[in-house]
Amino acid sequence: MNSSLAVSSTLRIETYTLGLFAVHTYLLWDTQSKHAVVIDTGLNPTAVLEKIALETLYLKGIFHTHGHIDHVEGQAAIKQCYPDVPSYLSQEDDFWIEHLADQAAMFQMETPSGVKIDHGLKHGDVFSFQGFTLEARHVPGHSPGGICFWVPECHAMFCGDVIFYQSIGRTDFPRGDYDALMSGIHSQVLSLPDDVTLYPGHGPATTVGHERQNNPFVLRHEAKL
């Protein structure tokens, strides 16, 4: 399943829901420059590749919000078509890539092959493309290397499994940390304006304002501050 959305006069976001866990793979591009990035790579991203070809896009990077298997398992298929396009992941999540077989066994899945991370990510990294920028914001807790990508040109944040519609990411995985997650949501997500759209790794998109007012985890945490 996929959906397309015009988020500014020139920027487009296409959402592809892929794999066993219905993870969202996002394709973001500028219609004038044709510069594009992929955020997270669900299983069998054939439709993503077809869209890149159809729109004659210049793929500039593959960005991972974290290293859980459902967010990286389709990366090799994209790398096979675009071997020179760099891939990015926080180095704090390298251990998840090293243990993909263990992750697969946990969920009785096939171990993905060919997942390759070219560059690490850290808080504050900014990637500038023609028409848009990505700013990496570190929000650990669901995963120690969790990264949200803030795109100011379209008032959007790609937040992986940090925060969902009226929920948050699990923290019962290895190296999970509930307190760190809530602190990061407070400082890196809720610090944005209410009208910013949040594009999560699963489920419907939401806004900062909606989560500030309706997310029970956020309300409980903010009440303690």
Explain this structure to me?
With 225 residues, the chain is an alpha/beta fold. The chain has a single domain (2-161), classed as 4-Layer Sandwich (Metallo-beta-lactamase, Chain A). It contains 8 helices and 15 strands. The chain has helices at residues 46-54, 69-72, 75-81, 94-98, 100-106, 178-189, 208-214, 216-224, and strands at 2-6, 11-18, 23-30, 35-39, 58-63, 87-90, 119-121, 126-129, 132-138, 147-151, 156-160, 163-164, 167-168, 197-200, 206-207. Strands 1-2-3-4-5-6-7 form a 7-stranded mixed beta sheet, with helices on one face. A hairpin with a 4-residue loop joins strand 1 (2-6) and strand 2 (11-18). The longest helix has 12 residues, at 178-189. The radius of gyration is 16 Å and the shape is globular.
Please sum up the structure shown.
The protein is of the alpha/beta class and about 220 residues long. It has helices at about 45-55, 70, 75-80, 95-100, 100-105, 180-190, 210-215, 215-225; strands spanning about 1-5, 10-20, 25-30, 35-40, 60-65, 85-90, 120, 125-130, 130-140, 145-150, 155-160, 165, 165-170, 195-200, 205. The protein has a 7-stranded mixed sheet, covered by helices on one side. It has a 6-stranded mixed sheet with strand order 8-9-10-11-14-15. The protein has a two-stranded antiparallel sheet with strand order 12-13.
- Run of helices and strands: EEEEHEHHEHHEEEEEEEHEEHH
Helix content: 25-40%
Write down the domain tally. 1
Instruction: Output the number of helix runs.
Output: 8
Gyration radius over CA: 16 Å
Could you tell me the number of beta strands? Answer: 15
CATH superfamily: Ribonuclease Z/Hydroxyacylglutathione hydrolase-like
Instruction: Average the pLDDT over all residues and give the rounded result.
Output: 96
What is the overall silhouette? globular
Distance between the termini: 40 Å
Structural class: alpha/beta
CATH class: Alpha Beta
